[in-house]
């Protein structure tokens, strides 16, 4: 709907946001603001990491589940919202 | 793993016409006899026909594979073996008495049956593997391989395939005649096979769904191999006899040479022609299977397969059987697999077939359309959370300052201009000898593209969640009215409001209810009052007063939810919505078959007798008044006594009224010369209130005095809003057209302590203190609500009330 589009656009225009990626369960990007090779790279690597993180969380307590993943690095922060059918990835440079 | 119930026929019971050299009922013995009998087979001529196939023995081959007992007559085997040999030479079988006991064929081969490969004869032999072992040694004739096959077929055919002697003979007779019979036989074989397989299949399908009861019973001991010992212990009882025998034997051997008793003789044996047989079968495909059974994997399968016979202990074992699948479907697939293993019965074949079936049974995970993904609820939720997190990253220092937390410096951020600013501040603080001056620091502002250009008319904090702010946008003036807007902002997202409500006309008043914290009352320029439920996502008000008969006809300038402790005229206690509007009425709204109101007070015009002394006034007196009522602009209920309230009018009068007396004012305070924009009681001193008006002044009153105690004027601009600080008794903030001021009466009663000018071209219109922090919100005519933090404000708290009263007292004293 329009709300979703608006929110996506707003996110992309926030300060410091480098890129936004939405991939489906197979790793095919649905929406992206970065170029294809970068998108595919991010999607593939983050998918594996998310799987591992989810496995970790659930191993400790099977009733728990992963809801959000944030990776803070020297240069950026990568934020991943995982789901069964898709994955939302936003890369931001918070200290711009 | 069925257990065959093997019964050994009592041969002697049935056929006592035959001399049996083989004892019955003990399978053990036959094993001993196997080798001699095989030799017997070779010496076909010497064959003592054990065959006695009387008619009674004939039984039709039951092609159905029912796992009933089948007769495994040990002796019959031998008989059959010999019979295998004999047909080569004779067709008829005669026993000792000369009776013709040629077996009739049990089964008539169907020439129309499909021909199958010879290899099938052996390949499809699935039953009684134990028997085939010692039969392979016996079958040395291969010309009748098909025969042997027939026998194996019939012998070992699962089920009650027993060999009728006649049938064998018939089939044999048929075979020997022409080589084509071999084919026939194979046909027959295949026929049998086909039938058997068919039946087998039937069973498989049926049995898939059935609960099969398996009884494990102990069968009779089958002795497959018995190799008697060739040595005996010296201590045993037999030792003596064995020793004796041994000695006798050695004696015998010694005596043999040259003894007439023994004569050497040679024999010639026939050696069976051997034939190599090759069998080709399809390679057995092997597949490696592995999985990792995680904690959560098991939990998932346990939860989803939770009807009945789930056994967790077997789970862990069986999890290892499952296949490894593509990673994406890994979790779900393994779950399905383990599920199938758990829930299947213990029949291996069926479970294995199930595992093969699983990939097709798995509900097809249809790839969700990308559009569907984008429009799903979860995606919206994720976007919402993501946006807040991004903004948190951006606004973290500001929000931390708002919450009065120490701000964290990002260690990786480039130290750009920060050191310079710090040094300057240090310098400035070092320069001053006294405490640093109170100042305002602008943190951020709530604004978005929707709100630019709109005039902020009112702001209200939510009573339950002090981080939620409702802002109403609407023009004050009568001209350029446009549809109003109410936005609910959250502290977590200063760039986009959480809720947006558009109203038909400009919003002029807002208030959140205290009892039901999600109710927001909105007063509008056209006199409508509406309540919204901010919890729901609906854009329409819960209730609207546009249908009410007594609705306001002029702009509603203030609405307030007031909690009445004392019930009025029998109505239930609780919260009531009070509004004041320019049509001169203060109304109380309640819900009774729709929104309805009663008037608490009609603001009548009072004659300003005290001030009208000029000549011009006389003319004014005679003018016809448009309405007998003075437009009310503001009101405020007493903080402790909810019966008393103050109302300010456009004439500049403040009326003290009571809820229980709606005919007359209790008091009137006249001092202002212009419309009163705001009246507010002090939250600390219950007698003191402030009023501000467009006559550029702010007046401080005490309830019992009819003249203001203190008046404040700083610029020649109309003061739109004034509010006491919730933290300090002597501090209040005021906003006039050009600037925002913070007054600290403890510091100075003549000048504001902090002055913050507005950006050029923008008028400041409303002010709100934040309840728990030292922050002030200022709304302006451009749609921005800026958040400022009061820094270095050192007015102490405890003595405040005393200070205020002292100030008042001293002022009064000086006045007198």
TrEMBL record, chain A:
Residues 4-92 form the Roadblock/LAMTOR2 domain. One of its GO terms (molecular function) is dynein intermediate chain binding. InterPro entries: DYNLRB1/2, Roadblock/LAMTOR2_dom. It comes from the Eukaryota. It holds the Pfam family Robl_LC7. It is found in: Cytoplasm, Cytoskeleton. Keywords: Cytoplasm, Cytoskeleton, Dynein, Microtubule, Motor protein, Transport. Its main location: cytoplasm. One of its GO terms (biological process) is microtubule-based movement. GO terms for cellular component: cytoplasm; cytoplasmic dynein complex; microtubule. Coiled coil: none annotated. PANTHER family: DYNEIN LIGHT CHAIN ROADBLOCK. Belongs to the GAMAD family. Acts as one of several non-catalytic accessory components of the cytoplasmic dynein 1 complex that are thought to be involved in linking dynein to cargos and to adapter proteins that regulate dynein function. Cytoplasmic dynein 1 acts as a motor for the intracellular retrograde motility of vesicles and organelles along microtubules. This is Dynein light chain roadblock. It comes from Esox lucius.
UniProtKB/TrEMBL annotation, chain B:
GO terms for molecular function: dynein heavy chain binding; dynein light chain binding. Pfam families: WD40. Gene3D superfamilies: YVTN repeat-like/Quinoprotein amine dehydrogenase. GO terms for biological process: cilium movement. The keyword Cytoplasm applies. GO terms for cellular component: axonemal dynein complex; dynein axonemal particle. WD repeats lie at residues 669-701. Keywords: Cell projection, Cilium, Cytoplasm, Cytoskeleton, Flagellum, Repeat, WD repeat. It is found in: Cytoplasm, Cytoskeleton, Flagellum axoneme; Dynein axonemal particle. This is Dynein axonemal intermediate chain 4. It comes from Esox lucius (Northern pike).
């Amino acid at each position: 709907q329009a709300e979703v589009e608006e929110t996506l656009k707003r996110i992309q225009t926030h300060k410091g946001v480098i890129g936004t990626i939405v991939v489906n369960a197979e790793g095919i990007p649905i929406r992206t603001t970065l170029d294809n090779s970068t998108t595919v790279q991010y999607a593939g690597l983050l998918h594996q990491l998310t799987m591992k993180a989810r496995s970790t969380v659930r191993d400790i307590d099977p009733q728990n589940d992963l809801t959000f993943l944030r990776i803070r690095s020297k240069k950026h922060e990568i934020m991943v919202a995982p789901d069964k059918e898709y994955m939302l990835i936003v890369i931001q440079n918070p200290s711009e | 793993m069925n257990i065959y119930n093997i019964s050994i026929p009592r041969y002697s019971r049935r056929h006592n016409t035959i001399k049996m050299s083989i004892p019955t009922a003990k399978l053990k013995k036959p094993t001993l006899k196997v080798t001699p009998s095989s030799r017997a087979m070779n010496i076909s001529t010497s064959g003592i026909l054990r065959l006695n196939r009387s008619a009674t023995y004939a039984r039709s081959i039951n092609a159905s594979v029912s796992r009933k007992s089948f007769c495994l007559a040990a002796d019959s085997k031998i008989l059959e073996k010999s019979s295998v040999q004999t047909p080569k030479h004779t067709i008829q079988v005669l026993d000792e008495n000369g009776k013709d006991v040629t077996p009739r064929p049990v089964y008539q081969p169907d020439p129309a049956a499909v021909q199958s490969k010879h290899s099938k004869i052996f390949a499809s032999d699935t039953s009684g593997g134990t028997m085939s072992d010692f039969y392979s040694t016996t079958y040395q004739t291969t010309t009748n391989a098909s025969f042997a096959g027939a026998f194996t077929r019939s012998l070992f055919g699962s089920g009650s395939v027993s060999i009728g002697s006649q049938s064998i003979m018939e089939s044999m007779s048929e075979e020997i005649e022409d080589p084509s019979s071999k084919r026939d036989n194979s046909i027959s074989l295949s026929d049998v096979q086909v039938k058997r397989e068919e039946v087998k299949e039937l069973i498989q399908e049926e049995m898939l769904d059935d609960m099969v009861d398996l009884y494990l019973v102990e069968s009779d001991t089958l002795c497959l191999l018995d190799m008697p010992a060739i040595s005996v212990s010296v201590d045993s009882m037999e030792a003596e006899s064995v020793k004796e025998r041994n000695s006798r034997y050695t004696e015998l051997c010694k005596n043999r040479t040259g003894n007439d008793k023994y004569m050497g003789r040679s024999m010639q044996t026939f050696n069976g022609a051997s034939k190599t047989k090759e069998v080709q079968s399809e390679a057995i495909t092997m597949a490696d299977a592995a999985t990792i059974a995680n904690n959560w994997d098991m939990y998932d399968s346990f939860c989803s397969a939770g009807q009945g016979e789930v056994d967790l202990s077997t789970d862990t074992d069986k999890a290892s059987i499952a296949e490894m699948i593509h990673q994406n479907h890994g979790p779900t697939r393994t779950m399905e697999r383990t599920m199938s293993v758990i829930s299947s019965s213990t029949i291996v074949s069926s479970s294995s077939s199930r595992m093969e079936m699983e990939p097709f049974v798995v509900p097809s995970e249809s790839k969700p359309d990308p559009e569907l993904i984008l429009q799903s609820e979860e995606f919206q939720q994720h976007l919402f959370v993501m946006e807040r997190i991004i903004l948190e990253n951006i606004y973290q220092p500001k929000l931390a300052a708002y919450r009065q937390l120490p701000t964290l410096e990002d260690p990786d951020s480039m130290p750009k201009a920060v050191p310079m600013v710090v040094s300057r501040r240090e310098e400035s603080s070092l320069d001053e000898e006294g405490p640093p001056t109170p100042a305002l620091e602008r943190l951020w502002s709530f604004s978005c593209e929707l709100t630019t250009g709109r005039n902020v008319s009112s702001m209200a904090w939510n009573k339950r969640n002090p981080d939620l702010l409702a802002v109403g946008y609407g023009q004050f003036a009568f001209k350029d009215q446009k549809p109003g807007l109410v936005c609910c902002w959250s502290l977590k997202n200063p760039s986009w409001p959480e809720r947006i409500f558009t109203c038909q006309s400009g919003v002029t008043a807002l208030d959140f209810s205290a009892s039901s914290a999600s109710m927001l009352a909105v007063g509008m320029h056209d006199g409508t009052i509406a309540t919204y439920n901010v919890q729901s996502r609906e854009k329409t008000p819960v209730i609207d007063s546009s249908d009410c008969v007594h609705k306001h006809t002029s702009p509603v300038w203030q609405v307030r939810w007031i909690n009445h402790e004392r019930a009025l005229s029998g109505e239930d206690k609780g919260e009531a919505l009070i509004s004041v509007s320019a049509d001169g009425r203060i109304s109380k709204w309640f819900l009774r078959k729709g929104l309805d109101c009663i008037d608490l007070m009609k603001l009548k015009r009072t004659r300003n007798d005290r001030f009208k002394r000029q000549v011009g006034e006389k003319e004014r007196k005679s003018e016809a008044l448009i309405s007998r009522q003075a437009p009310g602009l503001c009101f405020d209920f007493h903080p402790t006594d909810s019966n008393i309230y103050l109302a300010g009018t456009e004439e500049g009068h403040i009326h003290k009224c009571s809820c229980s007396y709606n005919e007359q004012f209790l008091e009137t305070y006249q001092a202002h010369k212009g419309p009163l924009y705001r009246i507010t009681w002090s939250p600390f001193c219950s007698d003191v209130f402030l009023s501000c008006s467009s006559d550029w002044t702010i007046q401080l009153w005490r309830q019992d005095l009819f003249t203001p105690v203190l008046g404040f004027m700083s610029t020649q601009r109309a003061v739109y809003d004034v509010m006491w600080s919730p933290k300090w008794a002597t501090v209040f903030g005021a906003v006039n057209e050009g600037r925002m001021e913070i007054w600290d009466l403890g510091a100075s009663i003549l000048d504001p302590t902090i002055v913050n000018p507005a950006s050029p071209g923008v008028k400041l219109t409303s002010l709100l203190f934040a309840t728990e922090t030292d922050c002030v919100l200022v709304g302006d005519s451009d749609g921005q609500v800026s958040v400022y933090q009061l820094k270095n404000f050192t007015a102490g708290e405890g003595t405040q009330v005393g200070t205020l009263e002292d100030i008042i007292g001293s002022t009064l004293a000086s006045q007198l």
